[in-house]
């Protein structure tokens, strides 16, 4: 399940540097998450770091990108092999 950032984002810049997959970047109006890179921190941490740090709780699961923990781990392995 890739995460997404909603329009409630206040652009506080807390999430972007904490993403181990570099999946978070500034969009036109607020930060966005690349679902191709988001593993919900599987392989890195026990919990998504962006969700833990977000002061306005604007990072829910992206319903368009529902993935199992196994799929997220496969994505993590693919991303770390490419690095």
Automatic annotation (TrEMBL):
The record's section on InterPro entries has:
4Fe4S_Fe-S-bd (IPR017896), 4Fe4S_Fe_S_CS (IPR017900), PSI_iron-sulfur_center (IPR050157), YfhL-like (IPR047927)
Q: Which GO terms describe its molecular function?
A: 4 iron, 4 sulfur cluster binding; metal ion binding
User: What's the cofactor?
Assistant: [4Fe-4S] cluster
One of the Pfam families matching this protein, by short name: Fer4_7
GO CC terms of this entry: cytoplasm
Q: Which residues form the signal peptide?
A: none
Keyword terms: 4Fe-4S, Electron transport, Iron, Iron-sulfur, Metal-binding, Transport
Q: Does the keyword Ribosomal protein apply?
A: no
- Per its UniProt record, what Gene3D superfamilies does this chain match? 3.30.70.20
NCBIfam families with a match to the protein in the record: di_4Fe-4S_YfhL
PANTHER family the record matches = PHOTOSYSTEM I IRON-SULFUR CENTER, PHOTOSYSTEM I IRON-SULFUR CENTER-RELATED
Q: What is this protein called?
A: Ferredoxin
Species of origin reads Roseateles depolymerans
